[in-house]
Amino acid sequence: MVSHLLGNDLVINEDACNLSCNYCLTGQSNLKEGHNLKLIFEPPKRDDYTKDTPLGRNVDAVADRLRTTFDMPLLKVTGGEIFLIRGIMDFLEQEAAKHEVLVVQTNGVLVREEHLARLRSWGNVVLQVSLDSHLYGGNSYRVQSEKLHAKTMAAIERILVSGIPVEIYQVLHDRSVAETTAFARFLAGFGDHVSMHPFPVRGPDSDDYKVRPDQVGHIQELVDNFDELSAVLPPRAYFDRLLRFYREGKRTFRCHLPRLVVSTFSDGVVTPCPNVWFSDMGNVLGDDWTATTDKIGETGLTQALLAEKPRLEACHGCFTPWDTLSMYFENEITLDELCSAPTYSPPAIRELLAEMKFDYDRGRRG
């Protein structure tokens, strides 16, 4: 069993969301029976977090068992849409006090001023907001009407002016890609606490939405304006890798994410990769939960995911903002460039990443 991990990507009630994005990965996943039933596209079910609810007992146990076992400084909480859960702010506040960084992913629609005031007061929260464009056309796979887009943008603009570090997760597809440079300029107007992370649409149905070869020039346009927009963009080398993904038609470069981050669910299920939910490694809510944590980092599937060249079809179609971690391990960016992002900037996280890379490099040299 590995002794340390960077973080836990904790997915809470992944089938409950207030949007029905056409390309939703949960709706394409086969990990669980509920995913096969595509419950994500049903009307969302509300849930409650308190110490006495089933959800509360479950997520407290999952978060604590992973954090204490692997000494994790980072927790990412996502869904579904977590702000559908009554009392979720109490869980987030509790976890913020236990981690160097708490990353909260949301579509932003349900985030209110009182949420933002509490999140800001903790001092170590990064908000990851899913938004493909500030314009309806580019965001229309996520929202099905201009009225809903306007509501979404009003909520997200409250987030952007809150002063909390915000990472905008932009899915690149045939509708959003033409607007990506204009989108970056729009975000640049909110200050240097906001950044944009464009990445390709993924999943088994991605051919229905993917950027066409004749549209890749729009990404090059963003790169051509990098100096102007660098304050809101990942390192320049990120775009070298992104353009390579499109030129080669698939991922051909190494991924290190499963050696750094594990993905867990609020029902206790563990899977080795936060990007693609490959397999059920076991459950950390039972009496024998340590048998599951002992597998983390040690399974044959994990080793396949860490191969020098991607072996699995799902990996060939995968590129996400987590890739900056792999880029650091592949010497494509420096530790300073990686840790310029608020998610990785705390000294304890920076030190851990440097140690993990040193151990990896030493092991590779033999």
Structural summary, described in words:
There is one protein chain. The protein is α/β, with parallel strands linked by helices. The protein has a single domain, classed as Alpha-Beta Barrel (TIM Barrel). It is 38% helix and 13% strand. The protein contains 16 helices and ten strands. The strands form two sheets. The protein has an eight-stranded mixed β-sheet, with helices on one face. Helix 7 links the parallel strand 7 and strand 8. It starts with 6 loop residues before the first strand and ends with a helix. The mean pLDDT is 94.
Overall 3D shape: globular
Helicity, in percent?
A: 25-40%
Number of domains: 1
In DSSP terms (H or I, runs of 4 or more residues), the helix count works out at: 16
End-to-end gap: 20 Å
CATH topology: TIM Barrel
- Described by its quaternary structure, the protein is single chain
Spatial strand sequence of the major β-sheet = 8-7-6-5-3-1-9-10
Which regions contain 5 or more consecutive residues with pLDDT less than 50? Answer: none
